[in-house]
Specification:
alpha+beta; Ribosomal Protein L22, Chain A; three-stranded antiparallel β-sheet; binds coenzyme A
Length: 117
């Protein structure tokens, strides 16, 4: 049963500026090492990082902000196919369906939260 939906858009430049200003500290406050490792080597690093930020915000919206979840409790990874998925550092009773897109200027993510009915 679908219990929530969330969407978020992030300007890539905003993420880039935050990293320029706060450095690794900014990244480490929001992302887990396992999220950074697979995306850290490509020219699309900032796009992919912004997309993961958008994904976390979309997940929080989909969960109706009811749970005390920190951004770092939400883990955004990719399957072998390239499709993104969401797991949690806390025990959470919802499953998230996730979609991500990014271009030069913006990243967008959409999340659907479902519970077993
Ligand atoms: C998977 C696919 C739809 C991605 O399209 P795209 O325009 O390159 O992707 P976008 O830039 O909008 O989004 C990229 C995100 O798509 C997601 N993605 C990648 N593979 C995916 C898959 N198999 N399923 C769902 N989402 C996927 C990822 O989250 C990726 O971002 P990330 O790598 O930072 O995690 C595309 O590569 C594809 O396979 N299309 C099939 C149609 C086709 O082959 N067309 C070519 C002939 S015209």
């Amino acid at each position: 049963m679908v219990v929530g939906v969330g969407i978020d858009i992030v300007k890539i430049e905003k993420i880039k500026k935050s990293i320029d200003r706060w450095g690794e500290g900014f990244i480490n406050r929001i992302f887990n090492p396992e999220e950074i490792k697979p995306i850290n080597h490509g020219k699309m690093f900032y796009q992919r990082l912004a997309a993961r930020f958008a994904a976390k915000e979309a997940v929080i919206k989909a969960m109706s902000k009811n749970l005390p979840l920190a951004l770092k409790d939400i883990v955004i990874l990719n399957k072998e196919s390239g499709a993104p998925y969401c797991s949690f550092k806390k025990v959470v009773d919802v499953e998230i369906l996730l979609s991500i897109t990014h271009i030069e200027d913006y990243a967008v993510a959409c999340a659907v939260a479902q519970k077993e009915s």
